Structures are given as C-alpha cells and as structure tokens.
Amino acid sequence: MLPYFELFGRTIPMYGLCILIGVFAASFVMVRGCMKKGLLWENAVIIGVSGLGIGMIGAKLLYLLTAFRQEGLAEAVHDGQFDALLNGGFVFYGGLLFGIIGAFLGARIAQVKMRSYENTLLLLIPLVHAFGRIGCFCAGCCYGKPTNSIFCIAFYNPISDAPVGVPLIPVQLMEAAMNVILFLILYFIEKKYPNNRLLTPIYLFAYAVQRFALEYLRFDAIRGTFLALSTSQWISAVVFVVAVALVFYRLRFEKERRT
Q: Is there a contact between 35 and 88 (Cβ–Cβ < 8 Å)?
C-alpha cells in the first residue's frame, strides 16, 4: 500500500496519479482510434474532457450522498467541514451517469454527432476505471472482506480506510483486472465491427454483472445498504435492465433503418 509518495518535496496522492496515468493511456487509445476511423481527435478530446469533468462531479456527489447520508451531509455543510467533504473518494456509478451527460454536452459543444465517437470513447471507460481501482488499492479504500485464503492482502498504513493488519480479499485488484479484460474484449469487438451499435449495451451489461458480484466481496461500510443489497448493487440492477432495453431498442432501430 502506498497512498502517497514524495516528489520534489511535494506529497503526491497515488490515487490521483493512477487516474492521471489512466487518462494518458486512454488518450493514446482515443487518438489512435479516431485516426483509424478518419475522425477528428480534437472533437473526441472535447467530448472526453467534458465527460470526465462532469463525471468527476457526479462521482463526488454520489460519494457524499452515500458516505454522509442526508443528515450527516447537511450537518457537515452546516459546520463548515469542507475538507472532509472534498478529501473523500468517488463513486464510479455517479461518474458514469454524469459522464454520459457530460459527453453528450461535449458533442453539442463540438457540433458533432455523439454516435460517430461513441464506440471510440466507450473503450476509455474500463481502461481508466482499471487504473482507478489500482489507485483504490494503493489508498487502501474499497477494500474486501477478511479472509484466511493465501489470496489476500493486509494494509498496515494507519491512514488507510482498511482495518490495519487484517488479511483482506484484494477486491480492488480483482476489479482492475476485470476492467482490463473487459476493455480488451470491447477493443476486439470494436476492431472487428467498428460501426456496431451494441458496444455500449454490451459494456453496461458486462459491468453491471461484474460489479453486482464483486460487491459481495466488499467490506467497506461506506457503500450503504438497503434490503440486504448495497447501493451499487441496486444501481447495477438498474443498469442491467437499461442495457437489455438498449439492445432491443438499437436492434429495432437498425432493422427499421435498413427497411
């Protein structure tokens, strides 16, 4: 675990560095994808930056709602505890929802059709997310359940959120690996069928199932629960239904377009 490191006398958070590395890797994939399709990568940058920026706001908002609940959040704002509010983490699903809104806003700003850039930009989501989960591992947040298995990790830095010295399931690394695999699957599908309209629902379907299952291995109390399911599991169920509906909608749309 390495939540921070020193560079030229400055303290650098590993979580932020991992996200930054993920963004650079995603930018390379994005530019290369746009060039292969004859798209202007500058427009993709506008869409991507808009999606990332607004997505970060959504990720922070859902974190605050989950971590502080309604009463705690109102009390923290009333008491002026803004450091506690700003220094906390992010929730991916909030970032995904707001990021989609931000991407469409970016497409409007760039005056292009989102459909042209959708598949290229979609590939970036699991890639950046994988680096983000590595950042979670370094920070000791989003940790897994205690285990006696040899496949475990113990955190000893007292500033981490994880219980100190307790062997835990490395669920952060598991999700990072699954996101890399998901990225590769989507990459090869998009490479073989570059203009297909099912890449987005495939991603939503796959991630919803993945996240729903992994939540059973999580142990951090900040996730929030309702009727024995975590907040992310309820959202995953909704995303699953949306993905299935989107498949039928797009298949029907494509069929009508060809007739």
A: no
Radius of gyration of the chain (CA): 19
Q: What is the pLDDT of residues 170-204, one digit of tens each?
A: 999 999 999 999 999 999 999 888 778 899 999 99
Tell me how far the alpha carbon of residue 144 is from its chain's centroid. 18
Integer Cα distance of 158 and 156 in angstroms = 6
Mark out the alpha helices in the chain (DSSP H runs): 14-37, 41-78, 82-86, 92-110, 114-122, 124-139, 171-192, 199-214, 231-258
Please give, one letter per residue, the 3-state secondary structure of 124-184.
Answer: HHHHHHHHHHHHHHHHCCCCECECCCCCCECECCCCCCCCECCCECCHHHHHHHHHHHHHH
The pLDDT of residue 229 is above 60:
yes
